Amino acid sequence: MKKILIANRGEIALRIMRSAKEMGIRTVAVFSEADRNALHVRYADEAVCIGPAASSQSYLVGSKIIEAAKTTGADAIHPGYGFLSENADFSDLVSRSGITFIGPTGDSMRMMGSKLAAKATAKKHKIPLVPGTDEAIDDVGEAKKIAAKIGFPILIKASAGGGGKGMRIVENENQFEEQMKLAVSEATSSFGDGAVFIERYVGSPRHIEIQVLGDKHGNVVHLFERECSVQRRHQKVIEEAPSSVLDEKTRKEMGRCAVEVAKACNYVGAGTVEFLLDEKLNFYFLEMNTRLQVEHPVTELITGLDLVKEMIRIADGEKLPFKQEDLKISGHAMEVRVYAEDPANNFLPDIGKLSTYKIPQGPGVRVDDGMEEGMEIPIYYDPMIAKLITHGKDRTESIDRMIRAIDDYQITGVQTTLSFCRFAMKHEAFRTGNFDTHFVKKYFSPEMLNANDEAEMELAAMLAVQAIQELSSSNNKDSALNVQSSGWKTNRSRYND
Ligand code: MV4
Predict the structure, then answer these.
(1) CATH topology (fold) of 131-200
(2) Which of 473, 471, 472, 449 is closest to 460 using CA atoms?
């Protein structure tokens, strides 16, 4: 392999190019008109404009990308994440054009793209699934019977859905029919596929995913787990490896199951098998992501591997250079996603210019970004500015290092999620590993953003509750103002200024 085209933009395009360069492979960037001056374009050996700003007219147009690969003589295409990365037809089209697709075949993607098909495959291999149906269910009467057997609350999910889209919790039998009808019509209008299935609702789940690597000779290994339970509206905010709760036995068993799933779909390249973990450490297969993931760096830091290099070697036909027994976990890694969103304002996207942009440095700190000082954050794409990743000898060190790195990160011009991440890193529940997917909902309110420790968080929480109570007490119209003048402001300035 001498030349790779990267069918992506931003931090992941740069990330892939860096590995290619280290391997002596030339790089081709593609870019939209909005990205003409972007870092990934300047970093590549060559660059091809593939159309207007809208991704539907540039980064999502497979034919333009294949044409760019042919024009520049690229041997292979790396899709990154998002955009065309999980498009089965694109994978097939690339291969049929005589270009190597750095990733799985279209058939593997199709097998895992439908949640029901994925569940059926997992069931065949005796992988644990959340109790429920493993076939599309359209008869409401039938569905009601199954729901009663599973026990409420239950969850209705769309087979074609993803990232939590099209999910509905049903608390009791009376709501069932209405919710199911809504779920089917929503799935039909959103995904063009009305197939839904039902599962028992796991109330306090943790999100654990296993990284796998498969080569073209049938060898598959897992690179342990990542935990991504701290998320907001199905958008991950904090990821770490390893998980703070898995014991060695569960880790081994989940790893074995993940490898089975990958083998069942003849998986080639880097993939991720997602599980839910309940309070008793029971795990259930959810789905498989057939791409390199945003949070892959935490796995790189604890295994010492470069996942992009491994993907390239695998695509080139090489055998995996290690066996499962050769792999071990070193230390602990933490990643936070830096989004141009305002945590004080319901995480509203904050567009604007990066007036100041200075990244943290020092031992155990890695920043994967694709922006630079003075740059306008493009409105057309994902608002992620960077991923801040730390590595330490243990979880505590990776967390303390993360707080230090967050404090060293200088960004002005836009609000970012860094302040939220700092809050989380200081929170007792997070630090002790006592959290689940409800962490943000349960513990976060904007008042917490400037608190420095547990005592301050508690005070902030008390003041917030007090303010809300007084606001809603109808017999004292001035109460909200009273809170502000009698303590709120003075406390704030005492603790923050
Ligand atoms: C669940 C669940 C509880 N019970 N399934 C959300 C995204 C999709 N991939 C699966 N999801 C969930 N499935 C059952 N049977 C709770 C979630 C869920 C979730 C899962 C992982 C990470 C964050 C989450 C946030 C809300 C709900």
Answers:
(1) Dna Ligase; domain 1 (3.30.1490)
(2) 449
